[in-house]
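User: Earlier you gave me the apo prediction for this protein. Now I'd like the version with adenosine-5'-diphosphate bound, so I can compare the two side by side. Same sequence as before, with the ligand SMILES added.
Assistant: Got it. Here's the input I'm using:
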Amino acid sequence: MEPLTQPNEKTIATTRPKIFEVTNLNVYYPDFRAIRDVSLNVAANEITAFIGPSGCGKTTMLRSFNRMNDLIPTAKITGTLLYRGADLYNKTVDPVEVRRRIGMVFQKPNPFPKSIYDNVAYGPRISGKVKKGTEMDDLVESSLRKAALWEEVKDRLKSSALGMSGGQQQRLCIARAIATNPDVVLMDEPCSALDPIATGKIEELMTQLKKEYTILIVTHNMQQAARVSDRTAFFSVEVEEEHDSRTGVLVEEGPTEKIFSNPNDQRTENYITGRFG
Ligand SMILES: Nc1ncnc2c1ncn2[C@@H]1O[C@H](COP(=O)(O)OP(=O)(O)O)[C@@H](O)[C@H]1O
Ligand SMILES: [Mg+2]
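And here is the structure of the complex with adenosine-5'-diphosphate:
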């Protein structure tokens, strides 16, 4: 008979269904290395939060997950990033398809200067997979419902998205991201331009969305990370002596509750308790 053993943290970590496996990831800008040797696994249908001081490479890290760094000609990336077992940076991989499957929501809501309907229909239209008419109407409605926006906008789908409040615009951007049927949604400080009520709505929405999607969120708001995420990765800045520059490193990653109550590393402890240095 199998011995009965308590699963330790390591076995739990290795049995979580992995959606991303990052190994020794480095991202270089022309003058320095923005993140150094990051290794990290991300599980499906969880919310993983990236926290850490400004400039520690959180946005750079997030952009690596859907090859948005490709759009910065001077950025260079080394190491491996597997998505569902496949090398995301393999030459045969189409970055446009990557960004359809791994959608992104930005810091500042950035709806197109189009109608509410057309913002959501935009991605499905260019992919050519959804025909006009009721099929598109249904997709727009279901996307807006999933983004908890339908009831507020169903009577004004043809009016401009720019007339909405900031919080509504951000939920519209979420609806736009999920309309293309992604697997993962990346969010870079999605509430930083929003008031507390709009922020609360997005946080509530995120916990709904994780049933269907995997979410990676960058936030400078530690309370937000503690409220919404299952796992938290804490990044910090280190001096690279040999290059006379600063770089971002992953200090530790683990269950959010543990990171905020009993982290392994003193640097994490200092950060979460507001003591720096
Ligand atoms: N396109 C870029 N070119 C050069 N340096 C950049 C670029 N984007 C970010 N950086 C630098 O890389 C470091 C990490 O930036 P970023 O990933 O935005 O950090 P965070 O999101 O944690 O604030 C910072 O020093 C920033 O100034
Ligand atoms: Mg950032």
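For your comparison, keep in mind: The two ends are 51 Å apart (CA to CA).
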